[in-house]
Amino acid sequence: MIRDGALIGYTRLFALNRDGSDLKMLTARHNDRSLGVAQNGGRIIDWMADGKPGSVLATRVFVPERTTGSHVASAAEGFGVERLDTTTLRRTTVIPPRINAAEYISDGRGVIRIMGTHARMSDTSTGDTISYFYSKGADRDWQPLSKVVSTPTGESGFDPYAVDSTLNVAYGFEATAGRAALYRVALDGTLKRELVISRPDVDIDTLLRIGRQKRVVGVSYVTERRETEFFDPELRNLRKSLLKALPGQPLITFIDASADEKKLLLFAGSDNDPGTYHLFDKATRKLVPILPARQQLAGKTLATVNPVRFAAADGTMIPGYLTLPPGGKGKGLPAIVMPHGGPGARDEWGFDWLSQYFAARGFAVLQPNFRGSTGYGAEWFQKNGFQSWRTAIGDVNDAGKWLVSQGIADPGKLAIVGWSYGGYAALQSAVIDPALYKAIVAIAPVTDLDLLREEYKRFTNYAQVSKFIGQGPHVAAGSPARHADRIKAPVLLFHGDFDRNVGVAESRTMANRLRDAGGKVEYVEFKGLDHAIDDDVARPQMLEKADGFLRGALGL
User: Fold this and answer.
1) DSSP reduced 3-state for 240
2) What is the pLDDT of residue 29?
3) 329 Cβ partners below 8 Å, 6+ apart?
4) Separation of alpha carbons 398 and 415, rounded Å
């Protein structure tokens, strides 16, 4: 929805039968007495609210009402929790709304044990600290648990993610020795802390949970590939058996389980296999494939993805992933450097549809996890990819130079392709080294850091976004739209005009600045699409257009 010129996102909860019938909205409806509209339609946080089928705990944004005639106004306002019957739609308040509440965590058995509250800077702006409180049981006598402070360089403090009612602990992440680790904290009043698992090389980034109660069963993290460590011995042994039963599909993930956990839904895939969903029956030990993730690619020969490391200009070894066209020698190829989005993100080993597309078209593709990426700790993240853009973009350009030095890339046929922050990196890389890349494709890119800041001015997280971007000379120097005259390679831009992550004005501005500077630029704008351009017509058009553009620019 567009309000006062700004794109506003809304979510709503729905329930339907498994055959697709009887669609019902679960989110509380507003009426003509409502003094506002809830953007957040709520989230189910407990599937076992009272042990009855269809009864759940869901968050709700309460909107106050005005008195009209015989209708008495409701003053309830803020974020609370309701018990909701998904069949009858009967709802009862479990946790009354609080104006500063931000999060609730259940124990998976119908009891809210943790509440997070925002520090508010004003009525329209939240602060950078969330204070967490816990309850010893259903009494909701909230006691302090932790404070999580968000800064441009990351978070500090114990960030709770789940409650184990059997052990009476909260699981959460906190940095140790500069890298995220998993801790558990007792909720019995002692707040006894225990380090569960940490790594000296990478962050522990994912808590594994399963079943209707969202039981904590392990963690995962990424070295060269994603690794899994199960606390649950049965799942640990089952994964080992599945690795043998599904050779060539080492990426095994347990997606969900039946209420009694006797049947498991799992996914198995690899770098050159988009993967398949399976159903495993513990009683019969039968594994049945249900659905391939990408049926259209069945039987196609896809490229393998190899972890690599290359030296940056200062000698730092930068990790990345190299995808080569299947069946070739891997030398003298047209090549693409493909920096990831974020910047608070990273690439990892596995199937990637974008890099696989270009590999199938004959390109070598290198995806660098430049400094500013997440997953490698605070020192690697630096001040984030915007404030430390010189380091991040330097690493991206060194990725291209490495491809040439290794003989993988033909220096006259080297391009860069990126999405979101990756699109920003693609454009800014050409500002820093105009001669390196011979063609640039930027999808939904940030092009001016002050323009990005301005996009968030009407939202409650404006202060956090502004701090993340920072102030100082790096803003102007790190905005490619202000240096369009330095970009010599032809540029292709894509953007959806309903993009709420990076406004469409970023690409419009870049295209105009390039034209004013006499540069070669093509701009494609997709009507009614957002940041992901997730559309079965638009995406193929985008891929075909990008491939044709690169072939023309590189002389292929």
Assistant:
1) helix
2) 85
3) none
4) 13
